[in-house]
Specification:
heterodimer, A: alpha+beta, four-stranded antiparallel sheet, 3 helices, about 40% strand, globular, B: alpha/beta, two-stranded antiparallel ribbon
Chain lengths: ~90, ~450
């Protein structure tokens, strides 16, 4: 399974989760786990996703998610899981 | 499964603490390009480099995007050109044609530096080695991307003082040849003792003759990450200090190992080593000097600096070694002056001198690096400084290097501007007592007694 971590950071507003999840669904990206908190009005979300069945090039998804973030007014990063796995797990 | 805390820790390092992979360096052997016809040699070199490295930049960019980690430089190192060009080049000017070919190949594949315009002369110089060294000033003045290095000594062979003398003259001539740009050429010329074959960092990168056809070497970075981590253990004991550096170095190096593995797999080129070095940049918060100050010094250069650097260098290695399957290159802390804002500030404040920097090089990974000195400094004095630094490397069985920039037309109190990652530097004073009689002796310094281990 190829996993990807989507992180969303920014000022809380209506519809952030909906828009991010809609994009993921439209691109056949399955959500494995979501955690989300609001700290002092700031929206903080991490989504662990499965990109095994992704049809697009992964770098295109990274670009499109960044663009989506700009539209909503939050920062969205989309990174392959290995960078976290390597750094924090032996 | 990865948790939110870990994800945010990694991303904080990348976004706020300047964590990056400093370089993916593709080493390319040019040994089988050797030809006695100069045109044919140049053609083969150009083809070999542009073919082997055609995807280097795009692969690097894709890895950056997919993992969300900046890879600052994609670079190339090649077999020392003195060996490759020996059969075809009869004059220094012949070698310059190869420099131009390398420059053109680097431009075609989109890399900013190509290293390996080098000669290995730790025991003696061939005619070819000497021609290459004599061609360096012109080669560096007439190209943009070439990096040059000369290995003039090793623990096993001693120091070739004839080469040291020639290199002093070469540094001076390179400064003259590039004086319109604050003698920038010298920022791309390194004189080594015990030069490693697999160093990914410029300007001293070349692909040694012990290496295969092509190899991926990666240099990590992360002074800002170490500095931030140490802020949390202010006032704590050495045990906690060392543990913190080790853990941070481990995390930083793991990222380098991941990138190295991915690049190797995607390019179909074997992975060589990860270089564990803490490499600073002129950016605020990306400084080795600031780490030393965080350890407890008012300014770098204060008493205690050498001990603090020794500790830092050792802990970085201890943490990094377990994070990578193969470690090599220079691996340690870099202390370039012009590329580190904290070092520049310390020179301005009068805390850091050339002599203290020399002491620091006894315990860290490189040497007198990116130091601007008065343009009037004589070639013999530059050779003397080189000889001192080479002696430190030879006796301590470690790599040492000298990258001095005698800035023509400038003196102590002036500032030299190199631009970009090379930064800027205040001109530092040099001891002006003469060493001409020492430097003009012919021959070499014998290998030290502890090199006889057989």
């Amino acid at each position: 399974m190829k996993k990807c971590i989507v992180t969303v950071l920014g000022k809380d507003t209506v519809g952030i989760v909906a828009k991010v999840c809609t994009y993921l669904a439209e691109n056949n990206i399955n959500i494995l786990d979501i955690s989300q908190t609001i700290i002092q009005g700031y929206f903080n979300m991490m989504v662990i996703t499965d990109v095994t069945t992704l049809e697009k090039d992964f770098t295109v998804v990274c670009d499109e998610m960044e663009k989506l973030g700009n539209e909503i007014g939050v920062s969205i990063r989309c990174q392959r899981e290995e960078i976290f796995e390597k750094m924090h797990r032996l | 499964m990865i948790n939110m805390y870990e994800v945010s820790e990694t991303n904080k390092m990348i976004e706020h603490e300047n964590l990056d992979v400093r370089t993916i360096t593709l080493g390319i052997s040019l040994l089988d390009c050797i030809d006695s016809d100069l045109n044919e040699l140049n053609r083969k070199i150009y083809e070999r480099i542009t073919k082997t490295a055609e995807n280097l930049v795009s692969v690097g960019q894709n890895i950056e995007k997919e993992f969300g980690i900046p890879i600052v430089n994609k670079r190339i190192s090649v077999t020392p050109i003195a060996l490759v060009g020996g059969a075809a080049c009869k004059t220094p000017e012949d070698f310059v044609t190869i420099a131009k070919t390398l420059d053109r190949a680097a431009e075609t594949v989109g890399v900013n530096f190509i290293g390996g315009y080098s000669a290995l002369v730790s025991k003696g110089m061939t005619k070819s080695d000497e021609n290459l060294i004599r061609s360096i000033p012109q080669a560096l003045a007439e190209t943009e991307r070439i990096c040059s290095s000369v290995n003039v000594g090793s623990t096993k062979t001693g120091i070739d003082m004839d080469a040291v003398r020639l290199c002093g003259e070469t540094v001076k001539a390179t400064a003259e040849a590039t004086k319109e740009r604050d003698s920038l050429g010298c920022a791309k010329l390194v004189i080594f003792c015990n030069a490693p074959d697999d160093n990914p960092f410029m300007a001293g990168a070349f692909l040694g003759v012990t290496e295969g056809d092509a190899v991926i070497n990666v240099g990590v970075s992360g002074p800002g990450v170490v500095k931030k981590a140490l802020e949390k253990v202010r006032g704590k004991g050495f045990e906690e200090l060392c543990e913190t550096i080790k853990k941070t170095a481990f995390k930083v190096t793991r990222v380098g190992q991941l990138v190295a593995g991915e690049a190797s797999q995607r390019l179909g080129i074997p992975f060589g080593i990860v270089d564990l070095s803490l490499a600073p940049t002129p950016a605020i918060g990306d400084s080795v000097a600031e780490i030393l100050e965080e350890i407890g010094l008012e300014r770098v250069g204060a008493p205690g600096t050498t001990a603090a650097l020794a500790l830092l260098n050792d802990q970085v290695k201890k943490g990094g070694v377990m994070a990578s399957s193969y470690v090599g290159g220079l691996s340690g802390a870099f202390i370039p002056v012009s590329e580190d804002q904290g070092m520049i500030d310390a020179v301005h404040a009068g805390s850091l001198t050339l002599e203290k920097l020399e002491a620091m090089t006894c315990v860290c990974s490189v040497g007198l690096d990116m130091i601007a000195i008065p343009g009037k400094t004589s070639a013999a004095t530059i050779s003397g400084i080189i000889a001192d630094e080479m002696a430190i490397g030879m006796v301590n069985q470690k790599t040492t290097a000298v990258r001095l920039i005698p800035v023509i037309g400038k003196d102590v109190g002036d500032m030299a501007e190199f631009g970009g990652l090379l930064g800027y530097a205040p001109i530092m004073p040099v001891n002006e007592f003469d060493c001409e009689a020492f430097i003009s002796r012919k021959g070499r310094i014998p290998a030290p007694i502890h090199s006889f281990k057989n």
